[in-house]
Amino acid sequence: MTRSPSSHGGRRPGAGRPKGEPTVRLRVPTGVKSRVRALIAGYRADADSNAVPVASDAPPRRVPYFIASVPAGFPSPAEQYLEEAIDLNVHLIRAGHEAATYMIRVSGSSMIGAGIHDGDELVVDRAEEKVLGRVVVAVHDGAMTVKRLRRRGGKPVLVAENPDYPERVVAEGEEFEIWGVVTKVLHTP
Predict the structure, then answer these.
(1) Contact at 8 Å (CB) between 179 and 144?
(2) Which residue in the list 107, 130, 147, 184 is annotated as catalytic?
(3) Known active-site residue 19
């Protein structure tokens, strides 16, 4: 079968992967394919350039902030004074890590013991260096997962925070990459 010439393919400046860079096949549910592609594109842009911080083109969103704590027991009507407005980015993203921070939605219940529920949104920091013992987003043998990272016998172990789910020991030769540390959980009750 002969192919007819087309405008697709061929050499283009900036196209393709760097020479010698290995590739790996990654399987994701079709429902999240576009989000994973966008995440990878953002990661590549971050690695290849001086990336712009997360949502830097959007104006800061300021939310009213009350100085008083809200009691979970009996109400205290005397403490209802507006203090100031706050920028949620300041509370959700570590200063200096703006370009390395992204959000991802959780699917499943393997981390309920860590307060992470199905449908929660996670703030994930790729620049965080201390990962052992923390909840991480990782890719293990082509599957993205959220688990607590431990080390046993010199091997990484992905530990669920739900006894109904087994832990996963990362064997030598298996694909394994940390995509960031979970720094905040946004939970809708």
Answers:
(1) yes
(2) 147
(3) no
Summarised one tens digit per residue, pLDDT across range 136-158 is 999 998 889 999 999 999 999 99
pLDDT digits (tens, 9 = 90+) for 94-128: 988 888 899 999 999 999 999 999 999 999 999 99
Kindly name the residue from 19, 69, 110, 130 that is annotated as catalytic. 110
The CATH number for 180's domain is 2.10.109.10
| 187 touches 120 (CB < 8 A) | yes
Residue 114 phi, psi dihedral angles, 5° rounding: -100, 10
Question: Count of domains in the chain?
Answer: 1
Residue 155 lies in a domain: yes
Decide if 128 contacts 182 (C-beta within 8 A): no
pTM over 0.85: no
Does residue 25 form part of some domain?
no
147 annotated active-site: yes
Distance of alpha carbon 11 from alpha carbon 137, whole angstroms: 35
Q: Give the distance from CA 87 to its chain's centroid.
A: 21
- Cβ(101)–Cβ(123) below 8 Å: yes
Q: How many Å apart are CA 5 and CA 11, to the nearest integer?
A: 14
